[in-house]
Structures are given as structure tokens and as C-alpha cells.
Amino acid sequence: MFAKEVYISRRKELKKNVKPGVIVFTGNGDTPMNYTDNTYLFRQDSTFLYYFGLDFPGLTAIIDIDEDKEIIFGYDFTMADIIWMGPQDTLKEKAAEAGIFLTDETSAFEAYLKQASQAGRAIHYLPQYRLENKVRLAKTLEMDIDYIDKNISNALMKAVIKQRSLKEVNEIKEIEKAIDITYEMHTYAMKNTKPGMIESERSGMVEGISLAHGSRLSFPVIFSIHGETLHNHYHTNIMESGRLVVHDAGAETSMHYAGDITRTFAVSGTFSNRQKEIYEVVLKTQLTAIEALKPGILFKDVHLLAAETIAGGLKELGIMKGNIKEAVSEGAHALFFPHGLGHMMGLDVHDMEGLDENYVGYDETVQRSKQFGLAYLRLAKELKPNYVITVEPGIYFIPQLIEQWKKEEKHGNFINYDALENYLDFGGVRIEDDILITESSHRILGKPIPKTIDEIESIM
Ligand code: GLY
Ligand code: MN
Ligand code: MN
Predict the structure, then answer these.
(1) Could you give the domains of the chain?
(2) Residue 37: helix, strand or coil by DSSP?
(3) Residue 12 Cα to ligand 1 middle (Å)
(4) pLDDT digits (tens, 9 = 90+) for 101-142
(5) Does residue 219's CB lie within 6 angstroms of at least one atom of ligand 1?
(6) Which distant-in-sequence residues (6+ apart) come within 8 Å of 319 by Cβ?
(7) Residues paired with 42 in a beta bridge
């Protein structure tokens, strides 16, 4: 945890922005995997961590703005629990670390909230992505469960997003810790991948590196010779010489700050000419996009700049044709680059996506496009100092998508379908780094991980 003053000051700021009423923070519980006591790895809710830092299951918090009270609800462990779990801090001790001195039993939460709701006071809560928490709120507020989503507090959500978007110095240090571990995961994979291995032989070790650091993964490892599948979590292929591996992985520190890096390398350690050509287009795109980052620019414009760089590069290789700006404005490049350029990163790898991506990445001035590809852009709005974001362009040859577009003769004026016949077995290339937006520019976070073809071939 950070010092308690950090949490006290974050809550103080929040209280200024949300009033009047009662704010509810639903912490996460343990979730059974195959029977009650065999649970999934516990993960606290990130907003709960942000305001309270308490990384234990079964906690709920209330900030009563009108009565200026902050309460943590939970339970103390009995001797029977302690026999199985070892010594535990009391609820009071835990809450004190977050600068909170009022605690009560779990069941008192329902009574408190019910009373506030029946008195007609405003109840503020965030989007609920866990069914248990939804059911609990619905029961307490005597509301149909489907209604829970409709009563989310926009004021609270906007206030939380505003705060969590601007990373504090102590948070940036944690993110850099995560990226330092991520550096080891990526350099290990490059140094130790050999033709004939099964992907899981390496993806498992990559995960182990993060665990050995007392850390964990910020999302399941993507490590695949089928990099054309964007989020490929299957690791059963044999890595044959001649293939590329897309390795997208990140550690999450013990305080739950994420890293998220992608590198693409040749299984054999040496890129073929065809692989080099595509790789250089993605690398140029990533460097061009990073270079453009500064406060005040719309991330959507950086995404479009990346799309134009990709389309321009593919035109030079004879895969695309025609006017590049027109091709991008009509969305033809999305056959090869069907996802967004990046996202915010922090306590969640896709930071705050559980709140509402349309509030995190968009605002009154930038609305989400409906165009294929651009519609997946998670972050479009103007960048501000202290945002931490990813920049992750890619080029993918997805045989099924190519086949469908070809059949429909889609964007035939911009895509050279004949040339594509030679790329159906290519796979994909993605390159991703994590970037801090500074007062006037940007800084790539963490130690540089081999990225140019020379750097990758030499470490391998
Ligand atoms: N690792 C998922 C992503 O890059 O967004
Ligand atoms: Mn990633
Ligand atoms: Mn990412």
C-alpha cells in the first residue's frame, strides 16, 4: 500500500466532485472455481484499491458525503479461520492503514444503505461487473437486478475517471516496476525460443518470471505463431522455423499496476526478407505515432496517423493501392490493422475499462466511430500530461477476413487482393510500448526492450 495520506487525499478530492449523497464502493470477493473453497486468484477491484488500498476479499466501503463519514465494512477472522489462514490483522487495523477509523460488520452495510436509500438520499455507485456485487446491491436497494446498470452514478464515474486518468508520481514508479519485470519476460522469451518448442514451453516460463518477482500477470500471456489472432491465448502450436511469434505480455506488481508490452520476433532468430518488410512498416508506424504524442493532441488523430503510415507502407509493398488518405478515411486499412492504436494503462491493463470505455476514452468532443476497425479504438480523446497510454500498431493477415472481403470485393480500389495470396500464411506483427504523456511531450516508460530487427536478432 501507499502511505495512508495518499488515500486520504484521493478521497478528499473525490468528495469535492461528488455531492450530495452516499458513495458506495463494492470491493471484490473470492469467487469459487470448481467448489467453494477452491477459488480463482483473488483480484481486488481497482477503484477500491485506488481509494482504499486494501487488498482483501469481502470489503465494502461507504463515503457518506452529507455526514462526512467514511466506513469500511467487513469481518474479523475467527480462530477457526486463523488455523487455516495464519494470523490476520483485524478489520480496524486494516482500515487504519487507509486512514479510516470507522469500521463495521458486513451486515451493517445493508442496513446503512437501506436507510439512506429509504430516506431518499442520492446513492452513488459505479458499474458492477461482478454478479455477486450486483445481486447484493439489488437486494439492498430493493431494485430489480436489471435496474442496477441503469442507476449507475455518472457523476461518480466521471469523477473517478478524472482522478484515475492522471497518474501520480508514485503510480508512475509502480508502473515502471511492472515494466521492468515485463522487460525480463520479453528478453527471456527472445533469448530462449528455439524452433521445435511448443509455445507453452515459453509462455509458461514468461508467466513464471512475473510470479518469481512476487508479481502476477496484468492479462493472460499472448504468445503465438498465429499472431494474426489478436488476443491468442492458446499455446499449443509447435514453433517452426520460418514463423514469427507475437508475444504480448505484462506483469502486474503486487500493488496491481500493469505493464503491457508486445514484441514480435522470428522463431529462428533471423527475419526473412518478407518478414522484415512488414516488420519495418509496423516499426515505422509505432515510432511515428509515439513521436506525435503530446498534450493537446487527440489520440484519435494519432491512431489515424498510424493507419496512414501502415497503409502507405503496404502500398509500397504492393499490397494496398490508391490514395492513402482516402483509403484510411474509408477504413480499407482495417483489413490489416483492425484494432485501436492503444489504451490507457494503470491499475487495470485496459485502465478503467470496467467503468465505461465511452467515458474513459471519449468525451463530448470525440464520439466513437461506427466504422469497422476505428470502432474498436478504446482511447480517442485529447491527451493530457500524466496520462499513461499504450501505442501498439500491428499488421495482421487474417485469412478468413481477407477471404470475406475479397468475396465482397470490399475496398477493391485500395486493396490488391492478388498480392495478398502470398501472405495468407504470414501471421501478424504487433509492437507495443507504454508511454507517459509529459508536460510538453512524452516519455517511453521502462528500460528499452529490443525492438529494431538488429536488436532482436542480436539478442536472440
Ligand atoms: N494486451 C492487450 C492489449 O495490448 O491491449
Ligand atoms: Mn498488449
Ligand atoms: Mn495494450
Answers:
(1) 4-164 (3.40.350.10), 169-459 (3.90.230.10)
(2) coil
(3) 33
(4) 999 999 999 999 999 999 999 999 999 999 999 999 999 999
(5) yes
(6) 336, 415, 416, 419, 420, 423
(7) none
SS3 state at 153: coil
Q: Residue 320 has what DSSP assignment? A: B
Percentage of the residues of the chain whose pLDDT score is greater than 90: 99
Q: In the structure, what pLDDT confidence band is assigned to residue 19 with cuts at 50, 70 and 90?
A: confident
Identify the nearest ligand to the CA of 233 by its number: 1
Longest dimension (CA), the chain: 74
Q: What's residue 233's pLDDT?
A: 86
- Calpha distance 213→203 (Å, rounded): 16
3-state SS of 348-405 is CCCCCHHHHHHHHCCCCCCCCCCCCCHHHCCCCCECCCCCEEEECCEEECCHHHHHHH
Residue 59, judged by CB atoms within 10 A of its CB (0-12, 13-18, 19+), counts as buried
- Distance, CA of 198 to CA of 170 (rounded, Å): 39
Measured in angstroms, how far is the CA atom of residue 301 from the centroid of ligand 3? 18
Q: How far apart are CA 155 and CA 164, in angstroms?
A: 14
For 165, residues 6+ apart whose C-beta sits below 8 A from its C-beta are 344, 351, 352, 360, 384, 386, 387
260 pocket-lining for ligand 1 (C-beta < 6 Å): yes
Residues pairing with 222 in the sheet: 248
Q: What pLDDT score was predicted for residue 22?
A: 97
Arithmetic mean of pLDDT over the chain: 97
Measured between alpha carbons, how far apart are the two ends of the chain, in Å? 38
pLDDT tens, residue by residue, 356-388: 999 999 999 999 999 999 999 999 999 999 999
The C-alpha atoms of residue 235 and residue 225 are separated, in whole angstroms, by: 9
d(CA 184, CA 323): 42
Tell me: the pLDDT tens digits for 31-63? 999 999 999 999 999 999 999 999 999 999 999
